Amino acid sequence: MRPLAEYSWRDWQLFRPLTHCYKTLRYAAGRELYVRSPARGGATDLSRRVAGQRVLVSIAFNDAEAIAMQAEAMARFVPNALYAIADNSTDEDAASAIAATAAKRALPYIRLPRHGWRKEQGSRAHGHALNWVWRNVVRPGQPEAFGFLDHDLFPTAPDDPFATLERQPVYGVLRQSGSRWFLWAGFCLFRFDAVRDLPLDFAQAWFVGLDTGGGNWAALYRRLDRDALVFMPTRFEPFRPGADPVHDTIQWCGAWLHEVGQTQRAGRVQEAGDKRRAVKQLIAAPLSASGAA
């Protein structure tokens, strides 16, 4: 919830501080139940495997093709990071295919606990997934550094995304709301020694306007000097000339290509298929040039 000083008299008349407090506590209780739930399968020793590593964890969700594409691009362009898959899928066929991809490439894989969020509450489910990985894999494993990726984010050139962490504690794509800011949950990296003792929460901080990952505003981001940090350059563009500039965009994060799921979420089935084909072509060219194809 917001600091009490930020609530207006009208907010108090409508009991918003009380309802916001209740909803915040209810979400926190649900989060604690979830992070204490056991994984549904996969590597039971994943926390030991990340120890001392630079690890990137992809949160998979019902898209085996995206994970296969990402795994290939990661192997080619980011070979010095430990790439792991945390599967938050609700579709059993997709989960089986994702697990098969991980097994084929000998990638660390874990199937996250079942969540009860509805389809339209995907951001909340994503926040729970990130919190589970943080509490059960990253924090006990104590890697050198760690980061989270959306499953439809693909490197298209050789990159060491952890290099900037040698000069600052966090790195990624900046998002902000008013004076508050956070790192986009789809591409955020952290030096472990800078956050190991903090009560991180990768959920939304919806009452202050921050999406998934914004829950770390109070514990982490407000303590940092934003002007002293550098962030990953980013831009959006239609996936093809003439495409809808709102629903049918792709996002470039440096040399990383984010497909952006908005097209599919908006029910634009034909456009989503066209976009996937365009993204595959954009990835195939640098892979071929690097000798992967």
What report would you give on this structure?
With 293 residues, the chain is of the alpha/beta class. The protein has 3 domains: 4-33, no CATH class; 39-228, Spore Coat Polysaccharide Biosynthesis Protein SpsA, Chain A (Alpha-Beta Complex), CATH 3.90.550; 234-289, no CATH class. It has 9 helices and 11 strands. It has helices at 9-13, 16-35, 46-49, 64-77, 92-104, 122-141, 192-195, 262-265, 269-289, and strands at residues 41-42, 54-60, 82-87, 109-111, 145-150, 153-155, 170-177, 180-191, 234-238, 249-253, 256-258. The protein has a 7-stranded mixed β-sheet, with helices on both faces. A hairpin with a 2-residue loop joins strand 7 and strand 8. Helix 4 (64-77) runs parallel beside helix 5. The termini are far apart. The mean pLDDT is 89.
